[in-house]
Design brief:
With 329 residues, the protein is α+β, with helices and mostly antiparallel strands. It has nine helices and eleven strands. Strands 6, 9, 10 and 11 form a four-stranded antiparallel beta sheet that branches. β7 and β8 form a beta hairpin. The protein is elongated.
């Protein structure tokens, strides 16, 4: 070592320099980098020491190995697990797993549900230290959450109108379970892949479904008929009421007019009875005779020919009549 050291640095001072260099190199190994999309989990003799603030992306330092070590898991990757089926590698398709997919609904029916769960790491420290097998834990929790939600839902809504609500409720329930575990996992989505009755009773369910569709069709037709008939009936009732009111108003007005006319006639009669009586007589005769056939002949002797103009207007033959002398028709 003396041969490689400069003059005057042999002996004890040279040893100290080497030790210092080694310590410097050892301390330099404490620098580490957290890449984008990662979180740094610092451990001192295996104990997680930066629980309050995980290391963000950037350059950091820790006490070199073996005192402290760092894990930097990727936290921005969205991972996926399947429940109820398994995808075939390379050939496509899937393998059904009925022990996972068959569930009991709220109305005591069996339903077959295949779904996927998408998740990512939210807290790298909790993810590394609080759950031993993350994917198996998430899968079991997802199956449990789906069974809980399905157990409160009837089969018919689950097969038709409530699929989106089922997925949303399952996601909320699963996230609550994982939060209770302090797993450091965030569930991004639950996607229903296939929701159907079991294959053994699929035909019977199809028959029930068709019957329900026929029922819905009949109900819709009845509702349409009701929505058409009721407004028509109400309109007809309103029209009849308005006609009755108009008739009532007309009769009242006519009665009031007749009463006023009678009073005026009576007042005129009290002032000049003879003239009023004669006028009433003439008006009455006019009303009686205005729609009758009339032949007026001047009295005399012998045969008096006349021309029946009214019959000529109707196309009848012209005849001559001989009324008795002095007769007027």
């Amino acid at each position: 070592m003396k041969s490689v050291l400069p003059a005057g640095m042999g002996g004890g001072s040279g040893f100290l320099l080497i030790v210092g260099l080694l310590i410097g190199v050892w301390l330099f190994t404490g620098f580490y980098q957290v890449k984008p999309g990662e979180q740094g989990v610092k451990m001192r003799f295996g104990e997680w020491v930066n629980q309050d603030a995980l290391d963000p992306p950037g350059l950091h330092w820790h006490l070199p190995y073996p005192i402290e070590t760092v894990e930097t898991p990727q936290v921005d990757i969205v991972r996926q697990i399947t429940v109820g089926f398994q995808r075939r590698d390379g050939v496509g398709g899937k393998i059904d797993r009925p022990e996972e997919s068959l569930m009991l609904t709220g109305d005591q029916n069996i339903i077959d549900i295949d779904f996927t769960v998408q998740w990512r790491i939210e807290n790298a420290g909790q993810f590394l230290f609080n759950i031993r097998d993350p994917e198996a834990t998430i899968k079991l929790a997802a199956e449990s959450a789906m069974r809980e939600v399905i157990g409160r839902t009837d089969i018919q809504p689950a097969l038709s109108t409530e699929k989106e609500n089922l997925a949303a409720k399952t996601r909320e329930t699963l996230q609550r379970i994982l939060n209770d575990y302090q797993s450091g996992v965030a569930i991004t989505a639950v996607n229903l892949q296939d929701v159907q009755p079991p294959k053994q009773v699929a035909d019977a369910f199809e028959d029930v479904q068709r019957a329900r569709q026929d029922q819905d069709t009949k109900i819709n037709q009845a509702d349409a008929y009701r929505n058409r008939i009721i407004p028509e009936a109400r309109g007809e009732a309103t029209r009849m009421i308005e006609q009755a009111q108009a008739y009532r108003d007309r009769i009242i007005k006519e009665s009031q007019g007749e009463a006023e006319r009678f009073l005026k006639v009576y007042e005129a009669y009290t002032l000049n009875p003879d003239v009023t009586r004669q006028r009433i007589y003439l008006e009455t005769v006019q009303k009686v005779l205005q729609n009758t056939d009339k032949v007026i002949m001047e009295g005399g002797s012998g045969v008096v020919p006349y021309l029946p103009l009214d019959q000529l207007r109707r196309g009848g033959p012209a005849v001559a009549e001989t009324p008795p002398p002095g007769a007027t028709q």
